[in-house]
Design brief:
This is MBL fold metallo-hydrolase. It comes from Sphingomonas tabacisoli. Pfam families: Lactamase_B_2. The chain is of the alpha/beta class. The protein has 8 helices and 14 strands. The protein has a 7-stranded mixed sheet with strand order 6-5-4-3-2-1-14. The longest helix has 11 residues, at 206-216.
């Protein structure tokens, strides 16, 4: 099983519009961050998590033209507004792309992107949308799901298992629940939101994430959803063994 980091930046990306790199060194390529998304794949199955506004460029860089399914973690713009780029995946596959989300996210996506799921003006639907249950098998990948508190809504935390390997994706949450602790125990890889060093009301900050990583003890932890205060080499110098900042186009073979 392989996990590919399509993007590891926050909603504004790095740099922010205006060429604002913040504390990030602009000469370090790994500081250039698109909006968050990952691919999880085996030899026979490819799952996309979220459709960021940078999706076209992300899939071109990853050399991916076909997927088996997309899972949306929640309805915020930086996670869904590249949804129109599923149209080319639809053309490549010759069939609508299978999409999954929790019920509250489905309601928003259907209202915002009805033409994608229902078709319009003679154009066919390019994706389907089904409820994401607590456990589902997509191809040869088993997916387990937990609801994570994220401000006034919840996001879907995801655990993937295939070929005896385990990885989990925990982005856009602000507290660690017991159900999350259970899902994120015994992992080979944990990709987790670490927005910045200072506290934030709807995202975890670095200190919290390091505490959870020590508690849950995954074999490897990668930080994602980072803003422009999180310089790649500065983080490398301060993080404990087994914890690293992610970077765009990073591929992790488990």
């Amino acid at each position: 099983m392989k996990v590919t980091i399509l993007g590891c930046g926050t909603s504004s990306g790095v740099p922010r519009i205006g060429n604002d790199w913040g504390a990030c060194d602009p000469t370090e390529p790994r500081n250039a961050r698109r909006r968050v998304s990952i691919l999880v794949n085996t030899a026979s199955t490819t799952i996309l998590v979220d459709t960021s506004p940078d999706l076209r460029a992300q899939l071109l860089d990853a050399r991916v033209g076909q997927i088996d399914a997309v899972i949306w973690t929640h309805d915020h713009a930086d996670h869904v507004h590249g949804l129109d780029d599923l149209r080319q995946l639809f053309h490549n596959a010759g069939a609508p792309i299978a999409g999954y989300a929790r019920p509250a996210t489905i309601a928003v996506l259907r209202g915002r992107f009805a033409y994608v799921f229902e078709g319009a003006d003679g154009y066919p639907a390019t994706a389907t949308l089904a409820e994401l249950p607590d456990a589902i098998r997509i191809g040869d990948i088993d997916v387990r799901v937990v609801d994570q508190p994220h401000g006034s809504i919840t996001s879907a935390g995801l655990r993937f298992e295939a070929e005896g390997k385990t990885a989990a994706y925990a982005t856009d949450f602000h507290a660690m629940t017991d159900a999350m602790r259970t899902l994120y125990s015994g992992l080979g890889l944990w990709v987790v939101d670490a927005l910045r060093r200072r506290p934030h009301p709807t995202h975890p900050h670095l200190g919290e994430v390091l505490g959870w990583a020590a508690e849950l003890a995954p074999k490897r932890t990668l930080l994602t959803h980072m803003d422009n205060s999180m310089d790649y080499k500065s983080l490398l110098a301060e993080l404990p063994a087994g914890v690293q900042p992610a970077y765009d186009n990073q591929a992790i073979l488990l």
